[in-house]
TrEMBL record:
Main location: membrane
Spans through the membrane: 26-47, 59-78, 90-112, 119-137, 143-162, 169-193, 213-233, 245-272, 292-317, 349-368, 380-404, 416-436, 451-470
Protein name: Amino acid permease
Occurrences of domain Amino acid permease/ SLC12A (ranges): 30-472
Keyword tags: Membrane, Transmembrane, Transmembrane helix
Domain of life: Bacteria
Keyword tRNA-binding: no
Topology class, membrane: Multi-pass membrane protein
Amino acid sequence: MNEPYAPVSPAAGGAADELKTNVLGLWQIVFLVISAAAPLTGMLGAVPPAMSLGNGIGVPGAFVIAGVVLLIFSIGFASMSRHVVRAGAFYAYITAGLGRPLGMAGALVALLSYTCIQIALYGLFGFFCTVVLGPVLHSGAPWYVYSLVCLAIVQVTGLRGIDLNARLLGVLMCLELGILLVLSVAIVIHGGGPDGLTFASFHPSNVFSGHPGIAVMFAFASFIGFEATAIYGKECRDPKVTVPRATYVSVTLILVFFAFVTWAIVCAYGIADAVGVATKQPGDFWFIQSTRYLGTTMTTVMSFLLLSSIFASILSFHNTIVRYIHSLAMEGILPPVLERLHPKYGSPFVASYMQTVSVLIPLLLYVWGGADPFNTVFSWTSALGTIGIVMLLAVTSVAVLAFFRTTRQDTRVWHSMIAPVLGALGLFAIAAQLVANLDALSGTDNPVVRSFPWIVAAVAVAGILIALVLRKKRPDIYHRFGQ
């Protein structure tokens, strides 16, 4: 299926609908990316189950493993970004390395996966609003009321242009990182808990104890969103320099931050108590120590920042999906109307409305079916999205290897061969852990959840078939795709 990579110019008239260029700098992209990873949400949601089901106090080491795998992946990914600058990064890279049929499969899987992640986050936002805002507002409003209000705000904000979105997300990101850093520093200043500031969490005997694969799986899920750096390539300044730097900075910051914060919370509880509390009181795991070290006021602030963290992640994923839709429209795969840009803000506003509708319909179906916002909407849908994204990352590593072996545009052995191979092996191993432990990731062994890998595979096959049909029926669109 491999085909030579030869960039094709957009269709006539398409230039008017190109995204604005030179509007994003390095740190604005970093804000967009780290906001998608939602550090506060990841820490509060992923760490307790990673401890109780995974490797216990070795969780900080699991975050290091996941981060190192992604850093290795990023080497080839960043090298590729210097040669292929497209808003649909995943499928553009797969197309360039493995051919258009697999590229189309990647495009559909990316749309499915990111949309599922966003739907899951809307469920999570609604759930925590009932917990945090309900008592404050003296309201018994159901979760979906908050979710729908959030959806409307995201739609309005998403129309205002990516530069404004980046500034807003930067503020929210600093707030959520700040509260976790304040807690962690307070723990360090006080010398930790019963065992002091122990580094037992990074000792191999603890990192690889219990079920380390499950812990790495949860840790990796907390990184999702970092790969969006390349999606903004056409809108940033000097993309061949900015995108690689943003990728390395984002992954490194998330890795160091997650490892430090999880280490601090383990120190706060001590080796003997951390796993027990994570198992018995997962929802209060972080708030217990926040109350102890920072007081009730700061703990209340943390609970509100959890909502802003989820909102920031939703907005970031909204921007990501919109750029995929706009890119596919520019290439003739989706209707041309989705190319249109807002006359004032220059944002892909029709694609934005379509993205909102694509999330609204499944949410309403969940509401109609009486689904639980946390145990079903969030847990199930995020599991499906995570599987798809991990598989995309793994296939992208293979595509990077194939691209450089074919084009010889980067002859550095580490960047073009060794790193992509190691990244692919690591990512396929994590994907295998996801499939084998779907019950742990989703919180259920329901047969529907067990079918998720097959759903991702079916969407990929559908993409291949669509590409083959286009190659025969619409060669003009086929040859423009992904180029």
